[in-house]
Amino acid sequence: MHALDNVIWQALNTRQAPLARRNGSAAVFQAEISILGGLAEPTDQAYRSLASLLDAQERVGLFLESDPRARTGWKIVSSVPLLQMVCENTEPGKTCDEPAIEPLGEPDVPEMMALTELTKPGPFGRRTREMGDYFGIRVQGKLVAMAGERLRIPGHTEISAVCTHPDYLGQGYATALIRMLMVRIDQRGETAFLHVRPENKRAVELYERLGFKKRVLLRYAILQKDTTRQQLGDR
């Protein structure tokens, strides 16, 4: 088993356990922190345990090895491919004109939410910043780019929420943020990893230039409790 297999479940039961809701073989992040959840194994009992953790109509995002099938009490909202990449470069380098990067905190949450809503880098809630350190770049006081840490397991930290306002693309802001995070993670003796939609060729190519290698293609499935009790299942 690779260290990054079933990574959400691992995070919820190790370094990010204080942020979790758990029941048996299922766990999810607290609602305002993240939609993500994990299962020890994709069994009927695990899905029943998962359902007990969610409010009516609450959704959960799972990283699965294959497309979800129907399962009693659930409906599949969406299922898309998700590429997991792992950093093999501990010296990302930098240019002489790196932009100024600043830490982001609670007062910055409204701007962080607005930027992620505009750019759609992945699920981001009001308390997502509690999962790790987040950083941003401002132009004339406006937050125009950000990135941070999301899933954390022993020896590994995920780089996530990499986004740039459309009006400021092509300035190297995402590259600078990723490089900075890579260095921080490496200095802690950890390995950086990330997840990206494989059709986002521009992002995949950037990550490869920075030293990330493709590891595995997953499915990111969003499920919701089905109050109609339709028959559903899982591969």
Report on this structure:
This protein is of the alpha+beta class and 235 residues long. It has two domains: 7-83 and 218-225, 3-Layer(aba) Sandwich (Aminopeptidase), CATH 3.40.630; 85-215, 3-Layer(aba) Sandwich (Aminopeptidase). It is 22% helix and 34% strand. The protein has five helices and eleven strands, in the order H-E-E-E-H-E-E-E-H-E-E-E-H-E-H-E. The protein has helices at 7-13, 44-53, 109-119, 173-187, 201-209, and strands spanning 20-23, 26-29, 37-39, 59-64, 74-87, 102-104, 134-139, 142-153, 156-164, 191-196, 212-225. An eight-stranded mixed sheet has the order 4-11-5-10-9-8-7-6. A three-stranded antiparallel sheet has the order 1-2-3, sandwiched between helices. The longest helix is centred in the last third of the chain and has 15 residues, at 173-187. It is globular and about 55 Å long. The two termini are 20 Å apart.
